[in-house]
Amino acid sequence: MANIYDARRYGKIAFLIASAAVVALFLYFSDSLIRDLSIVERERMQIWADATKEIVSATTLADDSAPAADIDFLLSIIQSNTTIPVLLTDADGNILQQRNFTMPVAEPASAIGLPYDSRNIEFLAKKLEKLRNSTNVIEIEISPGVAQYLYYEDSTLLRRLSIYPYVQLMVMLAFIAVVYFAVLSTKKAEQNKVWVGLSKETAHQLGTPISSLMAWMELLPDMGVDADTLAEMNKDVNRLSTIASRFSKIGSVPAMSPENLNSIVGDAVSYMSTRISPRITLTYTPFAGIASVNACPPLLAWVIENLIKNAVDAMNGSGAIDVTVGSTPLGAFIEVSDTGKGISRKNQKTIFNPGYTTKSRGWGLGLTLAKRIVEQYHNGRIFVKQSAPGAGTTFRIELPASATS
User: Fold this and answer.
1) Helix axis angle, 227-249 to 156-219, nearest 10°
2) C-alpha distances out from residue 395 to 111, 255, 292, 310, 387, Å
3) 108-159 pLDDT, tens per residue?
4) Which of 99, 102, 140, 364 would staple 148 via disulfide (CB 3.0–4.6 Å)?
């Protein structure tokens, strides 16, 4: 059974690695697409700069040799840029022209870019300062010793594409999380139905032979069976009845009442002390006062007995088990410590999973049911407080105080 959970653990690791690889690949291709589009935009700006140079040169030199068709073509290149915000400045940083910026104050477009409203001038100055610290600049050599500079921002499309992969990634992660928790909830509900059905069916199947045994117990005195033997047999029959009652309570809301934890744990330890190897020392340290908790005594005693049985199995026939009851600021605790073989850190949470067991015989349901009884019925928690291979294990149960304590 343990190998099933090892396989699941490795499967989760493999899934995480595969998911990380897919995400990395997705981001790589998205980044490549953005870089390619950025290069295309720079090439467009270079063409725009060349067109600007030709137009300025023709205007400055009054070159009548340039055909009107060529001038119109160059102007069409300038006007075709409707998506990339650009600033054209002279060598001293004076703004000569701007295109495609959303200005704070609406005003008619100006071929030279001036005069502007003072708020627009301040806006463009801030944009220019920001663009000077970027790589989006192209120098235009109008003539020897005369230069202009073209600054441009990424287009709206490029900016949107640059954040689109991360938006899509967040949507993917949210979708995966919703699916994961939905599957987890469905699986947990199905498991609960299985364990509840199994428990109730076990109680039902035990009911008939227990009733028959009780009837036989009434006849045995007339058959000459001695009183001591009858007393021990009666203990075992009553024990079977208690076990059947415990199974029948799984899946239904048990009756809870304020109980003295010392008494519940003491009875469980007393019962187990006569049923374990004499080479195992079982000691019990009750709380000095009254540890009052809301509890269902048969179910909580079942948890203690189960922990003691597991401790016995972990010690291979000899060792020591210490059971302690104490108080916490919010209630009380029970600790069951042994000197057994211990539990590795990676298995300290797995041991509560249904079907997990290291024994050749067993269903691996004991700790699963114990966790259900403590956490769902008693609103407490059960966990491995400390353990290490070869150094024993300590289980701790924490329970809230009763309302009347």
Assistant:
1) 150
2) 82, 25, 20, 11, 9
3) 554 444 556 677 778 888 888 888 887 888 887 777 777 888 888 877 777 7
4) 140
Residue 400, helix vs strand vs coil: strand
SS3 label, residue 335: strand
CA dihedral 157, 159, 162, 166 (to 10 degrees): -100
Q: Tokens 């060598």 map to which residue?
A: 91
Amino acid, res. 38: S
Nearest to 341 by CA among 309, 363, 312: 312
Q: Are the CB atoms for 52 and 148 separated by under 8 Å?
A: yes
Report CA 158 to chain centroid distance, whole Å. 34
* Cα within 13 Å of Cα(204), Cβ side: 6
Residue 84's Cβ-side half-sphere holds a number of Cα atoms within 13 Å equal to 28
d(CA 91, CA 107): 26
Query: What is the per-residue DSSP string for 197-265?
Result: HHHHHHHHHHHHHHHHHHHHHHHGGGGT--HHHHHHHHHHHHHHHHHHHHHHHTTS----EEEEHHHHH
Handedness of CA 182, 188, 191, 197 (dihedral sign): negative
Mean pLDDT of the chain: 79
Q: State how far Cα 336 lies from the chain centre.
A: 30
Q: What tokens appear for 116 in the block?
A: 């502007």
